[in-house]
Hints:
Layout: H1 2-11, H2 18-24, E1 32-43, E2 48-57, E3 63-74, H3 80-96, E4 107-112, E5 118-124, E6 130-131, H4 140-155, H5 168-193, H6 199-225, E7 230-232, E8 241-244, E9 250-252, E10 259-261, H7 264-272, H8 281-297, H9 305-318, H10 321-328, H11 334-352
Antiparallel strand pairs: 1-2, 2-3, 3-5, 4-5, 6-8, 7-10, 8-9
Helix pairs in contact: 4-7, 4-8, 5-6, 5-10, 6-9, 7-9, 8-9, 9-11
Amino acid sequence: MLHNFYNKLIAGDLTSEHEYLHNRLCLSQRDKIVNLEVKETIKTNTANLIFLDVEILKPENETVHEKLLLKHFKANDSNRNYLNHCIREIEFYNLERKTLSLPVATCYDTYVSEDKSMTCLLLKDLSADYSSELRSKCLCYWLSAAKCLAELHGKFWNKRYTADELVEEQVSKKVQEHRNNLDSAFKKFEKYVKNHLDHRFLSIYSDVLTISNDLMRERLSRLSEEENITLIHGDSHIHNFLFNKINHNALLTDFQFWNEGIGVADLAHLTRVSFPNEFGAKEHKLIVETYHDSLLEQGVSGYTFEQCWKDYQKHVACMLLIPMWQYTIFGLEFEKWGKDVKTLIKHYMDVLV
């Protein structure tokens, strides 16, 4: 099992687990692992990242190298919430391994301890060929990411993977809870930002609350009917993509927030962060067109560009709620998200006005 493999690595035993790796990598009987080397270990505040090099001797006496990344996380009292997100990511990769090929790093194995205090994830290390670094402000990165999202969404289009109750009584209850949470948060947020944002910005927020309430009911209704919904990443900002160093083709990483919903929610997250100021309505439209064209290539039907654009408009508006949640839930001060508000309002004006 993966946690045994991790423990052996920590103990410096790099030979006894060759059979485990042989099975996980689905090598042929004639392939032989001749060496296993830890290339680098990075310890963060929340996890251990172990980069591995597996040397494999092929039947033709050819030697190949498989690069792996083992992510290990162990909970304590201060990071239990983060562990829950890690478990959520494990759930995605367990789901991914049962489906068609997706634009993500290959996952070889997962592990969650019985008491859910430890997780491990064994992935293909793509760092030799892919990077999250944006080497320019070229629109090509965002277009590539939009295609990547369409490829992900197309594989899960109009399929349900959770067991949420979606009868009308439950829908109404969830919508009311959402409305109450929004109203309560906005009252606190509005009082705080009056000295930072003028009335024009706050009037936009008032419109966004209405859009968010309507969108919550629409999302739940569409999930109930399985109508133009999909599995979404949930945090698909540009830095959660890896780009091929040669052709800029994109892969997605970090699936701690995946859920089910309306696909362009991920597009709105994509343009939310680091979107160059010189990009405007034209670039937003091109990204949505690229995404929609790619959905059609994936075989999605019954979802027009006009519907896709309207969905995108609503979700771009709702991105303005993120700074509000950052303040009301996490206590982050204006200095942490003030610039984001101005950027998100620019997106709002570019897309909705």
